[in-house]
Amino acid sequence: MVAILGYSNEQIRDAVQQMYTHVAESPQAPFHFPTGQATCVALGYPEEQVSRLPQSTAASFAGVGWPFRGQVIQPGHTTLDLGSGAGNDSLIAGDIVGPSGQVIALDLTAAMVQKLRRCIAGKYPNIHPIQGSAEEIPLLDQSMDSITSNGALNLVPSKRKAIREMFRILKPGGKLQLADVVIHRPVTVDCEDDPRLWVECVVGATVEEDLLAMLGDVGFEDIRILNRHDYFALSPSQQTRDIARSFGACSVELSATRASKAPGLIREWARRLNPRRWLGQLHRQGFSGLLALSMALVTCYGILAISVLLTLLGVQLSLSLQVWSFAIAVFTVITALIIGSGFIRHRKPSPGLLATLGTALVLFALYISYHAATELLGFALLAGAAGLDLNFKRKLEARKLGLKR
Questions:
Q1: Is the pLDDT score of 188 beyond 90?
Q2: Mean pLDDT of the chain
Q3: 126/99 Cα distance (integer angstroms)
């Protein structure tokens, strides 16, 4: 698999539809992700539940978990199956809601919608397949009692928009159950717009903490992770298993409740700008070394600049040189340790060696013989080491994804 960069969201959607048309029409063909009735059972569906599904429907199963662990669908509910595919979960939901309930089965792929329509013709009057996008759900505000979704969100280019749509159509207090792919470490090379990599299910996946945060941002409450699966261990593709392993990919099953009203704009942005959140994102993206170096530089030159400015303004600042030097030294050593730890991933010693030399020069200037040029050279070497470490990590990631770089 070789990726070509620079595709639009529409091209990604086209690639998703092309792939899942193939799953609908040729379910016995080999795919990089697990499919079929055996996958249903492996992911936790009760065998008696699976045995009641039409064989042709179960053959095109392409979910990533058993969302019904959330138990949010009740008799009489009007329920949305978001990303319904061939309709496995729609049929199960239809049995749960009963004749007094309704299931709206929404899928982007026309072939999947048509397959479900043929399956239910004259048999399931409470199931209504429609074609549409999770980013623009064609349903009225607060019209659904519950939503179930299985393996759809990772294929959606704008996840935040899709989550907002789920919140919009749910009634206050409505429930969401969801199974989807998450990753431990984000994909950071320039491949998130590549449709062929997107349908691998890993590139489009969200870091678990970010997924939970996005649900909370729009107003979902009581968000619970119910189960995890080593989903990609079921993949017949060694390459897909390797890619998934390198990013810590798995599938999760979760449930959540819609709040009575959406949070205000100020509250939402306060959540999104929480320092712990964006610092965590920077760390997962590999910027810890640069962040620690920035702290060292701010401690060294930022405090110096503030001290000079205050003196010019007639304000006397009492600054302990020992404490100041110690703080600079601590952040400098932390920077070197973070950069050196990158060897575990990319097996290249040069960033660690360069960082060690830079740290030695800074410490020499601080504690043995101060020369501004020595200190600046030390920080320059640390900056070069941090950049080199980040570059090696990106190249390693690109090789694993089969990208030409």
A1: no
A2: 91
A3: 6
β-strands 220-229, 250-258 pairing: antiparallel
Query: Comparing C-alpha atoms, which of 88, 20, 15, 89 is closest to residue 57?
Result: 88
SS3 356: helix
Position with higher pLDDT, 8 vs 118: 118
Domain containing 257 equals 9-280
In angstroms and rounded to an integer, the radius of gyration of the C-alpha atoms of the chain is 26
The total of other beta-carbon atoms located within 10 Å of residue 170's CB is 26
For residue 1, the model assigns a pLDDT of 26
If asked whether residues 195 and 294 sit together in one domain, one would say no
Query: What percent of the chain lies above the pLDDT cut of 90?
Result: 73
**Domain-located, residue 212:** yes
Q: Do 254 and 309 share a domain, yes or no?
A: no
| pLDDT higher than threshold 50 for residue 6 | no
Asked if 393 and 346 count as a contact pair (C-beta separation under 8 A), the reply is: yes
Note whether 181 and 151 are within 8 A (CB). Answer: yes
Query: Would you call 180 helix, strand, or coil by DSSP?
Result: strand
Tokens 């065998």 found at? 47
- 242 and 115 inside one domain: yes
- The residue out of 215, 246, 280 marking a domain boundary is 280
Beta bridge partners of 180: 252
Long-range contacts of 390-394 (CB under 8 A, 24+ apart): 390/286, 390/287, 390/289, 390/290, 392/342, 392/346, 392/348, 392/351, 393/188, 393/286, 393/342, 393/345, 393/346, 394/188, 394/189, 394/286
- 3-class SS at 5? coil
- Are 51 and 234 a contacting pair, CB within 8 Å? no
Residue with tokens 């699966």: 229
The reply to whether 91 falls in a domain is yes
CB atoms under 10 Å from CB of 320, counted, come to 9
369-383 pLDDT, tens per residue? 999 999 999 999 999
Determine the pLDDT at residue 327. 94
- Among 213, 245, 280, which residue terminates a domain? 280
d(CA 339, CA 219): 38
What average pLDDT score do residues 311-323 get? 81
Where would I find the beta strands (DSSP E) of 48-162? 78-82, 102-107, 127-131, 144-150
User: For residues 135 and 159, is the Cβ–Cβ distance under 8 A?
Assistant: no
Mean pLDDT across the stretch 375-397?
93
